[in-house]
Specification:
The chain has 72 residues and is an all-alpha fold.
Length: 72
């Protein structure tokens, strides 16, 4: 059950941050959820990229752990 929750959490982070990353690349003025972060475009781009990668890694890790336990 714990890995299922982590997998869903990772997917939510992945989807939200990837969507915000694409939106930021298309329209530099649309800063998304993390728009209050200081520093401008580049730090925000790096933050969304890191969170997108973290969400993908968390989802993959939770899926492989659940699979190892025979839940998949």
């Amino acid at each position: 059950m714990k890995y299922d929750v982590l997998q869903v959490l990772g997917m939510v982070v992945l989807v939200v941050c990837a969507q915000a990353l694409v939106r930021l690349l298309v329209d530099h003025g649309e800063r998304g959820l993390l728009g209050d972060l200081p520093g401008g475009f580049a730090p925000l781009l790096l933050t969304y990229t890191a969170l997108t990668a973290t969400g993908a890694a968390l989802t993959g890790w939770a899926h492989s752990r659940a699979k190892a336990l025979g839940r998949r």
